[in-house]
Design brief:
The complex is a heterodimer of chains A (161) and B (527). Chain A has 161 residues and is an alpha/beta fold. Chain A contains eight helices and four strands. In chain A, helix 2 runs parallel beside helix 3. In chain B, helix 6 packs parallel to helix 11 and helix 11 runs antiparallel to helix 23. Classes of the chains: A alpha/beta (161), B mainly alpha (527).
Chain lengths: 161, 527
């Protein structure tokens, strides 16, 4: 009988903790939501890339799109210049919802070399990723002068994560 | 097929970790033997590809899995010798599940723990690594290492201006490589082994001190720390670092009580592992020198003995630091990292130091943000700490040890943030505070009020659990003996009268003679 009472007390304590203050909000928003996710995820047929896209979001999707476009164009050694994230923050006001990955993470996603305006290889960039309100564009940088103009334009926006 | 490989890896971790435990002469309860074997096995596995890299051996599945197998065999040479001498039952005893039993009132706790653990394991398995610190360093290096058969790979050719994560310990890289080669595209599953092993270890450690209901309550508070729970399925260094730092202190404090020398050296090894995972742990390790010296002085150890013991204690930490933070970076990585350049060059201005201490308390420990990080566990700890001070008016030796550890961590992490400004408050310092939580939980398990409550529940229950009684043997090793001697009658009335006078059972270990069945022989103490 006493063991039974202690079992009831244990169960009550668990319920109380799960429902007290911030624990309640967190438990419902995270572990319980994760359980709901599990019920969906266990039956889904997403590929590795699909799971990564759903987890990493827009920056991964954009990176993979760039990769596919460059593969289609058979570009031998693309070096992709990214606009600074501070440009999206200060000028376009779309940051942090929209941002580009840092070169290290972009390389992890795609195996391609990305550069920021302050990167040592920025002078070798041959493509520019532009994000506008209309979408993402991958522009070829055709001349050194064009590259210098771009670098000069973006220099007032320091790279941020 | 992947599941089969996972099982084989699991066995490999278990065997190699068991070998390491045997080398250190550790004979503990089954739950500790299994969980520590797995945790140590993971560390051995994390060291193997790193070692191969140091010798410029190609990191292929053949070399890595072959070396893991070899490591498991080599580490178990003492075990083979023991089997030849005493027969296989000698080893089987280490994993005997006979004393393991679940009481009905543990079931609600185990169910909720099971839920948290299951969700965590699934996310570990299903989702890719997410934290930016992993993606911009170890995870990317591991990914390309699998393709290029070396940790020093094409990742280092890209612009790494925005990150320093490529300079961190190869611990994550190695484990990710092993899992990816085993067929898990996102790696990570090793983290579940670490997580579950630690939960089991901690639950058993708590149950030795307080009633299972209170142990369940404390473990649930520990598990429901929102920030830390996320790192049970997102690989990074801090969760593993926390575990080995805690385990080191667990065995160090145990050595203070029991005098079992092997536990002292084992604690040194565990601190070395924590340092290998996060190099700045070395600074925290050094801060425990005063209590170690105090204990050695109390034991009236000779100067030569103290020096020898302390050298052996700190050697793994020094090696763990030097190998990963100096040797590997300086002589192997193609990019230079000037750690000296990261040090604050305004050390005479102590304002930022005190500001950091203040920020840790006001922002990371007591604000609304702190509740979002840790839940209410720090508030519960603070309340019971004050209550113990007011109502009991003294803290047991065990409680003091854990409180000292909390203080060291607070002072150490704050000082590190001052010395290395790149250790920012909201990320690095926040994650460094993971280490605070198991210390807080163990302090709570040695809180006199909770111990008295445990004793009261036990008496009321009529089936006293003698593990947290006054006669409790002081070490997990001896606990194993105690469990075997469980049929001996326990005088509950004596426990009741001991309430006011007794400190925690462990705290009194030095003053009160342990029960005959659990009394360590002098031979054992020298082990």
């Amino acid at each position: 009988m006493k063991g039974f009472l202690l079992t009831i007390i244990s169960a009550l304590l668990v319920i109380i903790i799960l429902n007290v203050g911030y624990y309640k909000d967190w438990f419902q928003a995270k572990p319980l939501q994760y359980w709901t996710d599990f019920l969906k995820e266990k039956d889904d047929t997403l590929s590795e890339e699909g799971i990564m896209a759903s987890r990493y979001g827009i920056s991964y999707t954009m990176s993979m799109r760039i990769k596919h476009v460059l593969e289609q164009k058979n570009v031998v050694h693309p070096i992709i210049l990214f606009e600074p994230n501070s440009y999206y923050r200060d000028s376009l006001h779309i940051y942090p919802k929209v941002h580009v990955p840092e070169p290290a993470v972009f390389y992890y996603y795609t195996g391609l070399e990305g550069v920021w305006i302050n990167s040592p290889d920025a002078d070798k960039a041959n493509y520019l990723v532009r994000i506008t309100s209309k979408g993402v564009a991958l522009d070829m940088i055709r001349t050194p002068e064009q590259r210098q103009q771009l670098l000069a334009f973006y220099r007032k926006y320091p790279p941020i994560l | 097929m992947t599941f089969l490989v996972f099982i084989l890896l699991f066995i490999c971790y278990l065997v190699s970790g068991y070998g390491l435990l045997t080398i250190f002469g550790m004979r503990l309860k089954t739950a500790y033997m299994i969980t520590l074997s797995l945790l140590l096995g993971i560390v051995v596995a994390s060291f193997v590809p790193f070692l191969l890299q140091l010798f410029y051996v190609d990191l292929t599945p053949t070399t890595i899995f072959g070396s893991l197998l070899l490591a498991a065999l080599v580490l178990n040479i003492p075990t083979w010798r023991r089997i030849r001498k005493e027969g296989f039952p000698a080893v089987r005893r280490s994993f005997a599940l006979k004393p393991f039993r679940i009481l009905p009132y543990e079931v609600p706790w185990l169910l909720i723990f099971g839920f948290f653990i299951f969700v965590s394991i699934w996310r570990c398995y299903y989702l890719p690594p997410t934290s930016r610190d992993a993606l911009s360093g170890p995870e990317a290096i591991a990914d390309f290492a699998v393709r290029e058969h070396t940790m020093i790979n094409s990742f280092f050719n890209v612009d790494l201006w925005s990150t320093n994560n490529q300079f961190k310990s190869p611990y994550l890289i190695s484990l990710q490589m092993i899992c990816k080669m085993a067929g898990f595209p996102f790696g990570q599953v090793w983290l579940s082994i670490v997580f579950v092993s630690f939960m089991i270890f901690l639950y058993h450690a708590l149950k030795e001190r307080v009633h299972p209901i209170i142990a369940g309550l404390l473990l649930l508070l520990f598990l429901m720390t929102p920030e830390m729970y996320a790192y049970t399925f997102m690989i990074l260094y801090d969760y593993s670092n926390m575990i080995f730092f805690f385990l080191s202190l667990y065995f160090l404090f145990d050595y203070f009580k029991s005098g079992i020398r092997s536990h002292f050296y084992f604690a040194g090894l565990l601190m070395g592992i924590a340092t290998y995972i996060r190099s700045e742990t070395l600074a925290l390790a050094v801060l425990f020198l005063p209590v170690i010296l105090l204990s050695q002085r109390r034991n009236k150890d000779s100067f030569a003995k103290i020096v020898k013991a302390d050298v052996f204690f700190f050697l793994p930490s020094i090696l763990g630091y030097y190998l990963t933070a100096q040797f590997y970076i300086k002589y192997y990585l193609p990019v230079h990292y000037d750690i000296g350049g990261l040090v604050n060059d305004h050390l005479s201005d102590l304002g930022p130091l005190f500001q950091r201490y203040s920020d840790i308390v006001t922002r990371l420990m007591t604000s609304e943000f702190a509740i979002h990080l840790w839940g209410y566990i720090l508030y519960v700890t603070a309340a019971l700490f004050l209550a113990e001070g007011i109502f009991v008016r003294r803290y047991s030796r065990d409680a003091r040890n854990w409180l000292y550890a909390i203080l060291v961590l607070y002072l150490g992490v704050g000082a590190l943030g001052f010395l290395l400004p790149m250790m920012n408050l909201n990320e690095t310092t926040k994650r460094a505070l993971f280490k605070l939580l198991p210390l807080a939980v163990l302090y709570l398990a040695n809180n006199q009020l909770l111990i008295r409550l445990s004793q009261w529940i036990s008496r009321w229950e009529g089936t006293p659990v003698h593990l947290f009684a006054r006669e409790q043997p002081s070490t997990p090793a001896l606990q194993a003996n105690a469990v075997l001697a469980k049929k001996a009658p326990v005088k509950t009335g004596k426990l009741a009268s001991a309430g006011g006078k007794t400190a925690s059972p462990a705290g009194n270990a030095g003053k009160t003679a342990p029960a005959p069945a659990a009394r360590p022989s002098s031979k054992k103490r020298k082990r």
